[in-house]
Amino acid sequence: MTIYIPEDKISEIKNTANIVEVVSEVVILKKTGKNYIGLCPFHSEKTPSFTVSQEKQIFYCFGCAAGGNVFSFLMKHDGISFPDAAKILARRYGIDIPVRTMSPEQKQRMSQRENLLAVNRQAMGFFRKQLLDAVSGKRAMGYLKKRGINKEIFDNFNLGYALQGWDNLLSFFKKKNISLALVEKAGLIVPRKEKSGYYDRFRDRLIFPIFDLNMQAIGFGGRVMDDSMPKYLNSPETPVYNKSRSLYGLNLAKMKCRENGRVYIVEGYFDLLALHQHGFQNSVATLGTSLTPEHVQILKGFVGKDGKIILVFDSDDAGIKAVLRSIGIFMRMEVDARIIVLPEGYDPDSFLFEFGYESFVDRDSNARSLMSFLIDSAVKKHGLSIEGKIRIISEMKGPLSSIKDNIKRSLYIKELAECVNIDESAVLEKIRKLSVRNRDKAIRPTMPNSFLGRGQNKAAFPDKIQEKSFQGKWGRLERQIIAMMLQFPQILSEISERNILNLFENTVLKSIGQVLLKQKDYSEMQASDIINIIEDKEQKNIVASLAIEEDKWDYEACIGIITRFESIRKKNEKKLIEKIKVAEKENDLELLSKLLRQKQKLALLTEKKKMTLLR
């Protein structure tokens, strides 16, 4: 069965749904005049530029130019299709959608995402049944009891159990006549090396279903109940499961995160269960991967601009490394991040069950800033001998130089200097040198004003990868024309009619322009669609760079740039002819040969343009 959504139902959903209510689940909004504003969930920003209009039922971000209606918000935020967004809204607002039986052809056209989510739902039910069965789930239930996890918690998180054996889940899906290729795509079964069939990915493991914000099972984690390795096994990335955007338990924690303006992050499944069981429901866990900018951006949307993100990692070497990996992300995204330091040998799970709620609250009240934690860890690691102090300063140079705020950096430098008993000015000088080098690396030359259209902002010159593509006399202006084509598709017909691309010298930019002109409906496409079409990695990077610029285009300014480009070409052709005449007169054969090659190249471009016009 699938869901067919008639146009009148789409209209009913659109007219019933309140975009402010929907957006408020992931963005803290503040009313300003007629509209609501908040921090954009699609990009990192310090000042709110994300605006929601209840009157018009639309959203728009003045920082990243994301915009649309309630359907497009869900689609962009959750990475789902339009039908999925419509179904979520219909369920939320109690709108019945007619169900029709599918023909074989309709079954083939059913969305891959919907199929995979259906497979995951059935797998979750299978695992759940095995856990609750008095016989098959006896060992797993005993293990949960031993770990102190109560029934309410394993019910809330829909825990399950994967039986021993190689084909239990495989046989389950075979009996249901479900495509094994689809089950494999969901990451639940693995093809045998001899390609003679499949076997279950999860075997004799406690199962932790991973949900998205809409309570859809998108993946699974499995843990052994003995000393077998690997201890944890997670689903691979699939079309519905992206580790860099998924956080375990966020579906249950999101409202508490908003209420408290803070969120705890742990690394393990049992750490998270322990936090929830002890009353800390505003907590999430990473899924076998480092904390990513996408994770922080999502959490920032729930805790708000002034909210706190608190890491509760193990205080061993692995925990310290995890903090080091994430500190750059927190600095760049200007998040108030802290870390709860647990006694040596304890993780969040063991600490909570041994010492309880009050002890954790006490640790929380003394949570350290990430920088203070790193300073303490470096001192503990290297000691305060002369050699140790040198290593401490060397280790802290990078993190301290990454702090953009001068006052914060000075305060932490003072803390470090006092901690290791070294003159503050000496430490400051070390950090300043590295900060200057980092700043110089980040600086890019800007495009001259003469290349900018009316009302445009100066655009930073591309990075080293792209500089290679933009070498030559015309690189910058040709680059601007491609940016214009990406951002102002209304000009594509003019580019095509005047055969502007035939005047390009840069073959990489010309190739990108040709791809754009081939897309008949490009005005309705996104830059991401073009990136998917282009296969060359370098060209993908260039398109992303040019499409992301925040230029303001209008038709008149675009025509001005195109006309200027043609005019400059003609003027340079005239100058080239004059130079050839001078070289002939002075009998400079080497220069003459070089100039004639340039003329031949220019003539070839012009001939191509003529041939195009004659077609």
Detailed description of the structure:
The strands form five sheets. The protein has a five-stranded antiparallel beta sheet. A five-stranded mixed beta sheet has the order 15-14-16-17-18, with helices on both faces. α3 packs across α4 (82-92), α12 (269-277) packs across α15 (348-365) and α21 runs parallel beside α23 (507-518). It is an alpha+beta fold and 615 residues long. α14 links the parallel β16 (308-311) and β17. The chain has five domains: 2-100, DNA Primase, Chain A (Alpha-Beta Complex), CATH 3.90.580; 111-234, Alpha-Beta Complex (DNA primase DNAg catalytic core, N-terminal domain), CATH 3.90.980; 250-366, Dna Topoisomerase Vi A Subunit, Chain: A, domain 2 (3-Layer(aba) Sandwich), CATH 3.40.1360; 376-442, no CATH class; 449-614, no CATH class. Mean pLDDT is 81; it is low at 440-469 and 607-615. The chain is globular and about 100 Å long. The protein is 54% helix and 11% strand.
